Automatic annotation (TrEMBL):
Protein name as it appears in the record: NADP-dependent oxidoreductase
Short name of any one Pfam family annotated for the protein: ADH_zinc_N
Cited Gene3D superfamilies: Medium-chain alcohol dehydrogenases, catalytic domain, NAD(P)-binding Rossmann-like Domain
Protein's organism: Streptomyces achromogenes
Ranges of residues in domain Enoyl reductase (ER): 22-353
InterPro entries: ADH-like_C, ADH_N_2, ER, GroES-like_sf, NAD(P)-bd_dom_sf, Quin_OxRdtase/zeta-crystal_CS, Zn-ADH-like_protein
Signal peptide residue numbers: none
Length: 359
C-alpha cells in the first residue's frame, strides 16, 4: 500500500475567552499533522470558509440551547466551508476531486465524516455560493413570514450575509416595497443601487445597552424615520438585529403582520456581556390588537428548505435576477482579523476566507 504523505494543516483556535468583543489576540494559528481518513471519513482540502458573527455567541460557553456546540479555549473554530476531497476510503460515495461543503471550516485540511459532507450542486455558477446565508433568509420569508404579492417588507441588518440576499428574495417573492437598515450611508447607497432596496435607513449602532438612555433615543429616532419610509406600515419583518429596531417594527406593524427573527445582533455583537442574550422592549398590546405573529427561524426545523433554496438560488444566479455580494479575504492568518472587522461592520455581504496553497 502506498504510504500517505504527511500533511500539515494550519487552523484557527480560540486561545482565550474574550473580554468583551473578540479581537485577533484571542485566537491562535496552530499547525497540526493530518493523517489518513478513518473508515467513514474523507480528507478535504478546504478552499473557502465563512466568517459569521454568530461565532461570538459560541465563544466561552455562556449561550444555552444552541443547535451547535459552544467553543472553549483550545478548541478549533468551525463553520461552513467548501473544499475538495483529497482522500476517500474504499467504497466511499465520494471521490478525490469532488467539491463538497461541510462545517469544519477555519482550518486548511479537515477530516470529515462522509455523512457530514455534501457535494456542491453543479448548477451553482460558483461553489462559493454554497457559503451564502440565503437559505435562512429564504426559509424565513417562505415558511415563517410567507411573503405575499404587494407586501411591504422590512429587513434589518440588510448589508450582512443574510440581509444582502433577503431584500432581493423578498422582491422575487412578490414584495412591492422593500426597506432595509444598515449602519452606514455608504452601505445604504450600495443596497439601493446594487441590490434593489427601495429605501435604506441608517439605524446607527446596534450595540447600545438594552434599556439605556441611548437605546431609547435610538428607538425614537429610528421609529420616526421608519414611519416616514412606510407611512402605511409594514407587512413583513425579517429581523437580524433586534433591539430598538425590533421595538420600532412592532409599532409599524400592519394588521396581520408576520415577523421572522433570524438573528439578534443587538445582543450577539454587544460590547457588554457574552453575546448570549438579546433583550428587547416591545409593545405586546400592539401585537395583540394588530394580530402580529412573531416567530424565530431555525433551519433545522425546516429540513426541506436547503434543497429548495439551492435550486432556486442557482436559477436566479444564472438568470441574473439575484446578486451575491461577496467580501473575499485571502489567507487563514487573516481570518481572526476578518471576524473582528465583520463584527465592527466593516464588510458588505457574505464574508469568506480563501485558502491558497502555502509553502
Amino acid at each position: 500500500m502506498t504510504p500517505v504523505p504527511q500533511r500539515i494543516s494550519r487552523e484557527v483556535r480560540l486561545a482565550a475567552l474574550p473580554a468583551g468583543l473578540p479581537t485577533p489576540a484571542d485566537f491562535a494559528l496552530a499547525e497540526v499533522p493530518v493523517g489518513a481518513p478513518a473508515p467513514g471519513e474523507v480528507l478535504v482540502r478546504n478552499r473557502r470558509f465563512l466568517v459569521y458573527g454568530g461565532l461570538r455567541t459560541l465563544l466561552g460557553g455562556a449561550a444555552k440551547d444552541t443547535p451547535v456546540p459552544v467553543l472553549r479555549p483550545g478548541d478549533t473554530l468551525y463553520g461552513p466551508a467548501v473544499g475538495e476531497v483529497v482522500l476517500a476510503p474504499p467504497g466511499s460515495p465520494l471521490r478525490p476531486g469532488d467539491v463538497v461543503t461541510h462545517l469544519l471550516g477555519w482550518r486548511e485540511y479537515a477530516l470529515v465524516p462522509e455523512a457530514e459532507c455534501a457535494r456542491v450542486d453543479p448548477a451553482l455558477p460558483d461553489p462559493v455560493a454554497k457559503l451564502a446565508s440565503g437559505s435562512a433568509a429564504y426559509g424565513a420569508l417562505t415558511r415563517v413570514a410567507r411573503v405575499r404579492e404587494g407586501d411591504v417588507v422590512l429587513v434589518t441588518g440588510a448589508a450582512g450575509g443574510v440581509g444582502s440576499l433577503a431584500g432581493q428574495i423578498a422582491r422575487l417573492l412578490g414584495a412591492s416595497r422593500v426597506i432595509g437598515t444598515t449602519g452606514s450611508p455608504g452601505k445604504a447607497g450600495r443596497l439601493v443601487a446594487e441590490l434593489g432596496y427601495d429605501t435604506v435607513l441608517t439605524a446607527g449602532s446596534w450595540r447600545e445597552s438594552p434599556g439605556s438612555g441611548n437605546s431609547r433615543e435610538a428607538y425614537r429616532d429610528f421609529a420616526g424615520r421608519l414611519a416616514e419610509a412606510a407611512p402605511d406600515g409594514i407587512d413583513v419583518l425579517l429581523d437580524t438585529v433586534g433591539g430598538p429596531q425590533l421595538t420600532a417594527a412592532v409599532d409599524a406593524a400592519r394588521h396581520g403582520a408576520r415577523f421572522a427573527l433570524v438573528g439578534a445582533l443587538s445582543g450577539q455583537l454587544a460590547a457588554d456581556g457574552a453575546g448570549a442574550a438579546a433583550p428587547a422592549e416591545i409593545d405586546t398590546f400592539r401585537l395583540i390588537v394588530q394580530g402580529v405573529s412573531v416567530r424565530g427561524y431555525l433551519g433545522t426545523d425546516h429540513p426541506g428548505v436547503e434543497a429548495e433554496w439551492t435550486a432556486r438560488f442557482a436559477g436566479w444566479l444564472r438568470s441574473g435576477r439575484i446578486r451575491l455580494p461577496l467580501t473575499r479575504i485571502t489567507g487563514i492568518d487573516r481570518a481572526p482579523r476578518a471576524l473582528r472587522e465583520l463584527i465592527g461592520g466593516e464588510h458588505f455581504g457574505t464574508v469568506v476566507v480563501e485558502l491558497p496553497e502555502h509553502g
